[in-house]
Design a protein that fits this description.
The protein has no helices and 27 strands. It is mainly beta and 325 residues long. The protein has one domain: Neuraminidase, CATH 2.120.10. It is globular and about 50 Å long.
């Protein structure tokens, strides 16, 4: 697909919850180049790349990311673009979603076959691309029935090729599909008791576990791949072990979890039982500071890619050198 883009400015406000809680994002335009190596930044910050704009390697409020099996980073922003970067932050390619007037996507994943699954949020569907940006499939429609979506937020794919799709604004559930995209079942919806979700924003398949960033419940949930609820940790707050709008989740090579907190402007690390191992980041514009981070990814080398949404950039950390507070 051609990479010619018309001007599309980032909106200044985004809704944090379907219930109506909102954060007003003002003054998000930053100056800066596409690639910056912080000479005197905090320990563990390897690289900062990006900048405000619509050119290659620039961002208009990035808010979802995924690492492919080749180590490339896929990022989608509010210009409805998927951009691809190598592990050093060099721009590789980009393509644009087929429609965007109704709104922009909020989630994506890349499976073991390098297929890119985009939660096309405001068009009530999932679109599947190859790694070059060629569409290969799409599924979903607007509604509350089986296989339908209201604002899908994220996608995850397990080792068998089964697909999990999270959604909010009414359904607030996760649906499972086989590799052939027919509906199987849903879980976490309004009749789920303690497992009931409120804006499940990010999904992580980790062996036989599906971790869910249950954003508006300010917690992380653990499900089996059959939809069985296995517990949760976290509560609303800013202390260690507490969460405020967790929007992104991934795991480090040692099995610990990292969570991007949109509301606390930080990344928090947890063991698999939910005990906090420390936080990193604070509100601000400099290296090591964050503005409304939406997503976080970790590679096999222990590098952490933080989608620093309000700063229109990606910060790359060495998890072994980060000073977890």
């Amino acid at each position: 697909m051609a990479w010619e883009l018309e001007a599309d400015y980032a909106r200044a406000a985004m809704r944090a919850c379907a219930a109506g809680s909102a954060f007003i994002l003002a003054g998000l335009v930053l100056a800066g180049g596409c690639d910056q190596r912080p000479a005197d930044g905090p320990a563990g910050v390897l690289r900062v790349f990006g900048g405000t704009g619509l050119g290659p390697g620039e961002f208009s409020y990035p808010r979802a990311a995924a690492l492919g099996p080749d180590g490339r980073l896929y990022v989608i922003d509010k210009a409805a673009r998927v951009q691809v970067f190598d592990a050093d932050g060099a721009f590789v390619r980009a393509w644009r979603m087929p429609a965007w007037d109704a709104g922009k996507p909020t989630g994506l994943t890349v499976d073991a076959r390098s297929r890119v699954f985009v939660a096309d949020t405001h068009y009530f569907r999932v679109i599947v691309y190859d790694s070059e940006g060629r569409e290969s499939a799409r599924f979903g429609s607007q509604g509350e029935g089986p296989g339908q979506f209201i604002l899908p937020t994220d996608v995850a794919v397990d080792a068998e090729g089964c697909i999990f799709v999270a959604e909010y604004s009414g359904n607030d559930r996760i649906s499972k599909f086989p590799p052939t995209f027919e509906y199987m079942f849903s879980f976490g919806g309004r009749d789920s008791g303690t497992a009931r979700l409120q804006r499940p924003q990010s999904l992580l398949v980790d062996g036989d576990v599906l971790w869910v960033a249950d954003a508006c419940n300010h917690r992380i949930c653990r499900f089996g791949l059959d939809g069985t609820f296995r517990g949760a940790f976290g509560r609303s707050g800013s202390a260690r072990g507490e969460l405020r709008f967790p929007y992104g989740i991934d795991r480090l090579p040692d099995g610990t979890l990292i969570v991007a907190e949109f509301g606390n402007n930080r990344i928090q690390r947890f063991d698999r039982e939910g005990r906090s191992l420390g936080t990193w980041g604070a509100a601000g514009r400099g290296p090591g500071q964050l503005a409304y981070p939406w997503a976080v990814q970790a590679d096999d080398a222990g590098r952490i890619f933080v989608i620093d949404s309000g700063n229109n950039r990606v910060q790359v950390l060495d998890s072994a050198r980060v000073d977890w507070q």
